[in-house]
Amino acid sequence: MENNLNQETNIVAEGFTTTDAMLIHWQGHRRLTRKVIEAFPEDKLFTYSIGGMRPFSAMINELVSIATIGLQDLFKDDPTSLNDLQYHRDKLPLATKEEILDSWDKVTVIINALWPQIPQESFYEVIKAFGEYEGVTSDIILYWIDNEIHHRAQGYVYLRALGIQPPAFWDRY
Fold first, then answer.
1. Residue 49 belongs to domain with CATH number
2. Model confidence pLDDT, tens digit, residues 70-126
3. 150 labelled binding-site residue
4. Which of 44, 45, 54, 112 could form a disulfide with 58 if both were Cys (CB 3.0 to 4.6 A apart)?
């Protein structure tokens, strides 16, 4: 019995994943989401919706805002409020598919630059994201990834409804 407890303790101490693996995982999802953006006809990216959902461009604006502001907030004492995040999202000047892809790529560079600067212990600290959502930093980052997956799935539904074959959901390279 004692041996099992030690094994469990070691598993907890070692953790499920590393911060480097988490970044690689996130960037894989970002590459796939970029492919979904590329698959959209430009006009449909900004105008098409189903069942009252937003156009895919608006969802991408949200993901761009969350990733950039969210990560930058990890280095601030006074995080961005949810209202300011929504203001930023709604005011992004992304009017063409090219601008959206360019913005997406710039966020990738920001993520890659900021990620290594996050102290390891910060991933285990409780923070308040956007002044509203309290949780462990790693869980909040996982929420950002989950949110991206959710919106990408909405993009898949739009593409299929438009008769366009979306990228393979497993192709994150």
1. 1.20.120.450
2. 888 887 767 776 667 666 666 666 789 999 999 999 999 999 999 999 888 889 889
3. no
4. 54
